[in-house]
Design a protein that fits this description.
It is a single chain. The chain is α/β, with parallel strands linked by helices. 23% of the residues lie in helices and 24% in strands. α1 crosses α2. The longest helix has 17 residues. The two termini are 16 Å apart.
Length: 211
C-alpha cells in the first residue's frame, strides 16, 4: 500500500467560537447495549453488513453509524485519534462532550481511531498492534465508507465464515486490502477494523483473510 501521510489531529483554533454538541443517544444505557450487540454480530460474522438499530445525530463529517460506535465504545480511558477529514470543531466537541475520551495526535497512542475518509486510509501499521503477551491492547479503527453492495468485490475467509463471504465496499481505498493482508500476517498482533456506512457496519477482525 502506498504510504499515506498521517496528518496530526488538529485542535480547534483557540479563538474559535465554542461549538455546542448535538444530542447523543436518546436512551444511553439501552441504546449503547443495542449498538454493542450489533458490533458483536458484525465481528462474529465478518463481511456481513449489519444495520445499526440506533442512529444518533451526527456532526459532519461523522455519520450516525460512526457516532453510535464512538458513543458506545469510547470513554475517558480510550485514547482516540481522528484523521484530518474527521477533525472538525463540531466533531471534536461532540466526542469530547459525550465520550469524555482523550484526543491524541499520535496514532500509535490510540486505542480507537476514526477514519473520516475511507478513500485515504492511513497505513494500518501506524496504529498499536498489541503486545505479544497482550494482543488485546491493540487499536480498533472505524473507517467511514459510502456503502456496501457496490464497488470492487473481495472474498473473505477465516473464523466466523463457513466457506467464503463476498464483500463489496464503495468509498474504500484500493490500497486498504494490500495493507490488510499485511495486518493479518501479524496475527495474533494487528488491528481490528469496523467499516461504517452511514447506517450499517461490517466487522473485519484481524483473523479475516482476503483472497
Amino acid at each position: 500500500m502506498p504510504a499515506c501521510p498521517i496528518a496530526p489531529t488538529d485542535a480547534p483554533p483557540t479563538d474559535a467560537a465554542p461549538v455546542a454538541p448535538q444530542p447523543g443517544l436518546a436512551r444511553p444505557v439501552l441504546d449503547s447495549q443495542r449498538v454493542f450487540r450489533a458490533v458483536l454480530r458484525a465481528m462474529s460474522r465478518p463481511g456481513v453488513p449489519v444495520a445499526l438499530p440506533v442512529l444518533p445525530p451526527a456532526p459532519l463529517p461523522l455519520t450516525p453509524a460512526t457516532v453510535a460506535l464512538c458513543l458506545t465504545l469510547a470513554d475517558f480511558e480510550t485514547p482516540l485519534w481522528l484523521d484530518r477529514a474527521a477533525t472538525t470543531p463540531a466533531a471534536l466537541a461532540h466526542l469530547r462532550f459525550h465520550c469524555g475520551c482523550p484526543i491524541v495526535t499520535d496514532p500509535a497512542a490510540a486505542l480507537f481511531a476514526v477514519i473520516g475518509d475511507g478513500s485515504t486510509v492511513p497505513p494500518l501499521n501506524a496504529f498499536a498492534p498489541g503486545e505479544p503477551d497482550y494482543p488485546d491492547r491493540s487499536a480498533t479503527l472505524v473507517v467511514q465508507v459510502a456503502g456496501f453492495g457496490t464497488g470492487p468485490r473481495r472474498m473473505l475467509h477465516g473464523p466466523g465464515i463457513e466457506t467464503s463471504q463476498a464483500l463489496a465496499v464503495s468509498g474504500l481505498s484500493d490500497g486498504f486490502w494490500a495493507a490488510w493482508r499485511d495486518n493479518t500476517a501479524r496475527y495474533p498482533l494487528g488491528v481490528d477494523v469496523v467499516l461504517a456506512s452511514p447506517d450499517a457496519l461490517v466487522g473485519l477482525p484481524r483473523t479475516v483473510q482476503i483472497h
